Amino acid sequence: MSVAARTARPRRGSGPEAAQVRSGARVRVRVPATSANLGPGFDSLGLALGLHDEIEVEVTGSGVEVQVSGEGAGTLPCDERHLVVRALRAGFAAAGVTPPGLRLAARNTIPHRRGLGSSAAAVIGGLLAARGCLTDPGMLDDDAVLGLATRFEGHPDNAAAALLGGFTVSWCEEAGPQAPGHPRAVSLTPHLDLVAVICIPGRELATATARAMLPDVVPHADAAFNAGRSALLVEAMTRRPDLLLPATEDRLHQDHRGPAMPNSAALVRRLREAGAAAVISGAGPSVLVLGAGDEVAATVGIAAAEAAAADGVEWNTVRLNIDTRGAQLTTEGVRHR
Fold it and tell me: What is the pTM of this model?
C-alpha cells in the first residue's frame, strides 16, 4: 500500500515589492485542534483532529477590534496582545507590508491549556489570515508559515499538524553550528479505520509547567527505545493500526510529567492495561486514545467511568474524526486550501 504525503514546500512570490494588503479584505480561516507527541514522537509527531476554531478577519482603516466567543471568552485579551493578532502582525511583517487596521472575530471550540493545540491553532489561523489579505499570497507560503509558527511555538509538531492536516512528521534542518534549524514537515494519510478519542479533564495545565519537569539529559537506552517506537508508529498510524499499543510506548517525557497530572497518568495506565493505545495529548492533561473500530470508544468510556469512581475526576470523552485537510483559508467566498 502506498502512503500519500503532503510536504510544506516553498512557493515563491514575485518579491517583497509586490506585496500589499488588499484594502477591505475579508478572510475566514478554519483550523483544527491537534495532538502532539502521540507517545514516543516528542516534539516531532502530530495529528490533526476534527475539532476546530474559526476566525474572521477584515482589513480596516486603523486600530484593532477583537471579539471572542466560546473558549476564552471574557479571559483572552481583545487588543494587540491577542495571539491571533500577534500572528497576523508577524505575517504582515514577514511579507514586508505595513500593518493595517484589523477587525477580528474568533469562535473557539478547542479547549485551552489541555494539550490540544489551541495556541498553534491561533497562530496558524492568524498567519493564514495574513496570507489571505495579501495581493501576493505567495509571500506567505506553507514553508514561511511553518517557520513563523515555530518561532511562536518553540517546536513545529502542533503547528505542522494544524497547517497540513493528517498525521505529521516534523523536523528542523540544521542551518549551522550557531543558527537555529529551519522547520520542515510532511503529512501522511492516516489509516482509514483510525479512530481518535480524547478524554478532557476539567483542570488546565500550562505547557511551560509540563516542559519544566523534563530532565536535561536522558539515558541512551531510553532515546534508542523511543526512536524505535517512533519509527514503528509511522507504520501503525498509516498501515497497521494493530501495532498502535506497542508503537505508542514512551520513555522520554510522560513519566516525568506524571506528577503534574496524576489523574491523567493514572487514566493512561488504566487504558493501556485494558489494551488501548492511550497517551498524554501534547503537554497534557488531556488523554488521547488511538485505535481502529467502534470498540475503542467503548473501552475508553468504561475506563473513564472507572477512573471517575476511583479518583473523583470527571472526564469529558469525545470521539473525533481525523482532519486530513488541515487549516482552510477562504477569501471572499473562494477557498484557497
Answer: 0.91
